[in-house]
């Protein structure tokens, strides 16, 4: 990671914070992009760009260009920005499907489209997306979320094919991530069976590293230690 310039979307969320912190601790320079506002001053090692709706292509492009201008280049994009909704198909609302598509597919699509010219200019351009194991076979109440994450899987494969030889594009497919929010929503679950943000960060950052140069178009399940 030493010297790499990495854009992390959703950088102020539970997973994004961990990924950014681990990458920076290993010598990477970080551009964090998030919908939430940020007051952190820019430094040579890190810039945070808050208040960005990545489902809007123009806002995504402006944020990515600001990151590229600050550091002079981009080496990797980690698309963590997204959302979750639990709602059955029959009793749900069509707006939930639209919101999941915007939060999970459009954010990754718009950030990737904006970043790809910069990543292709790098000697080791990388994109890592966040899919979901729950999108491989959707259960009751998982329709809107699973459909949107399945879209992320197909986006990953298409970009990997289109940019092969220039930029690698892969996705990690976590099971339930061990966060405060998920523990609050599922208090009776066995948290030991969930994947931690730290475990997931290790896989994400491997895929963003030079060592992963031979991997592209992969959808990698990450289910934790149990």
Written account of the structure:
The chain is an alpha/beta fold and 226 residues long. The chain has one domain (5-222): 3-Layer(aba) Sandwich (Rossmann fold). The protein contains six helices and seven strands. The protein has helices at residues 14-25, 57-71, 94-120, 143-162, 180-185, 197-207, and strands at 5-9, 29-33, 46-49, 76-79, 125-130, 167-174, 219-222. It has a seven-stranded parallel beta sheet with strand order 3-2-1-4-5-6-7, with helices on both faces. The protein is globular, with a radius of gyration of 17 Å. The model has no long low-confidence stretch (mean pLDDT 96).
Q: What does the main sheet amount to?
A: 7 strands, parallel
- Tell me the structural class: alpha/beta
Please give the count of helices. Answer: 6
The radius of gyration over CA amounts to: 17 Å
| CATH H-level homologous superfamily name | NAD(P)-binding Rossmann-like Domain
Number of domains: 1
The CATH topology is: Rossmann fold
> Could you tell me the strand content as a percent range?
15-25%
Distance between the termini: 28 Å
Residue runs with pLDDT of under 50 for 5 or more positions: none
Would you report the number of β strands? 7
Mean pLDDT: 96
- The helix/strand series, from N terminus to C terminus, equals EHEEHEHEHEHHE
- CATH architecture assignment name: 3-Layer(aba) Sandwich
